[in-house]
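Progress narrative, work stream C.
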Amino acid sequence: MKILLTGGSGDVGTLLTLDLLALGHQVINIDVAPPKIEGTTFFQGSITDRDVLAQAIQAVDCVIHIAAWHGIHEKTKTPAEFHDLNVTGTLNTLAAAASAKVQKFIFISSTSVDDVNGLYGHTKILGEEMVRTYAARYPDCHYITLRPRAFVPSWNKAVYKNFIEWANWFVKGAVHINDFKDAILAALALPHDLHNKAATYTIDGAYDYSAADLQNWSDQTFAKYYAGDVDMAQKYGLDTNRKPKVLQIPPEQQLPGYRPQYSLKNVLADL
């Protein structure tokens, strides 16, 4: 399959590219930054440039639309910059895919759509609305929206200066970037459901705690699961009393084939 990644040079795009190439797919990457790995066909440019998009999308089977400013950019990017990339860029990508008769379109949204007045969340709301509109106009294409919660990797030093700082963020409730990459692959493998023209799936991480323990949380719950790691966790400043926020995902928003693997157990092992 010939797959176009917008923003393919970023963290999730790089991980995804490695797997796609290993699976035998042909990967096209459009990004303002050069790719971190070899083996792709690279178009340097922004999705705000319709001419570059038109060149990159020729004979493509699937588009995985990753490129966006995120919540971490709200302090450095203006509302106009967010709108240009996240809204106009998404419209350009949808239009180019429709023109090229692309068979599948995977839109990377965010659970930040719950923040209806937020700068980032609002642009993703508009993006999802456009995806639903294009799904109605072009039913021959399979449109899928993924809503992951934050998936910043531990190695992104522009956000977290070290692993400890990242771990303290992760234990609040998050999805590991490797799990989110696997969610995209699961979406890629889904057959076209003619009865659900624009399916939306929410992506959360893996949790070791039972539903009963989460409901009846106490300062001893952490020790119940990780008794041998309490002293180490506290030594490095992890809040062992913190109850993670686990998303309650309705059945229709659960992505078939997705099984997250990286939980707090893995964080402690890495620590």
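Work stream C, second folded protein:
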Amino acid sequence: MSDRCPGVLRLHEAADGRLARVRLPGGRIDARGLRGVAAVARLGNGIIELTSRASLQVRGLPADAGERVAAILAAAGLFPSASHERVRNIVASPAAGRHPRSLAATDAVVAELDHRLCADPALSRLSGRFLFAVDDGAGLIGRRADVTLTAVGQNRFAVGEWELTAGEAIDAALALARAAKTAPGPEVADPGHLRLGTLRQSDGRAALTVLPRLARISPAQLDALAALSDDIRLSVRRTLTLVDLEPTVAAATGAALRQLDLIDDDRSGWSGLTACAGLGACARAEGDVRTLAAARAEQRTGGDPPEHFAACPRNCGRPPDAEVYQ
């Protein structure tokens, strides 16, 4: 299927230079990967964005940066397949089985789905917009996908009308993708997501979730995150979650995250607030929506409905439940 989605090898030409999008199945990235993305960003203007599909994209790259970007990301473990790199679109809850409402661990399911996706030559032609989701049963994915595997018990997942073992569910998901058919999860008025701050995991350890302002983060912040954790989870709400923290270190880690200017309070006006790339970054932009959104953050609270500031009618990056301002 033909589409214009950027990747690592196919860079998108934007107003501020080339853009590379790095897929992170399940939203997972380790310290080596964080440092690799930071190194790629230093080839360009230093802007890194969290996407609405729990991926990372790097802006402002030189036109001839493609080979260097691929080499850096391959060394960081983020580029396992040149043929399938744009189709590795798998989202999952950042908690991935650790939430008190979770019914099954999902990290192994995401990893196997990604492995088998990349091993199938036919699926290299899948649209770069086709999205898989693996829900641990807690309902914290945050958006609908084309094909959703929803945990209904240990090693049991629902795909559409079928209730299957994890392996069978992966078989079904890939078969649906080959046939370009969908099996989305149930429609919900308010897609669930992991709240900012501290979550007590079902095993007694802690997970910390923070938000970069308007989904942008710097190379220096990524390097600092890499020093704090070897397991970071991105969500479709453009958050970052550190999991499996011992209670004795959770408070100090939270303080370090705040020192990085990351928001950990759901009551903040930045919570639920998004904006597109805007003037200077997108040729279609008709206004400086990022400045408007930053001003709006001072006026709202995290309890307000989600709001998205868009610089043109395309509404790029709009969360499905957000009110749009142009």
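The CA atoms of residues 286 and 311 lie 5 Å apart. No further action is required on this item.
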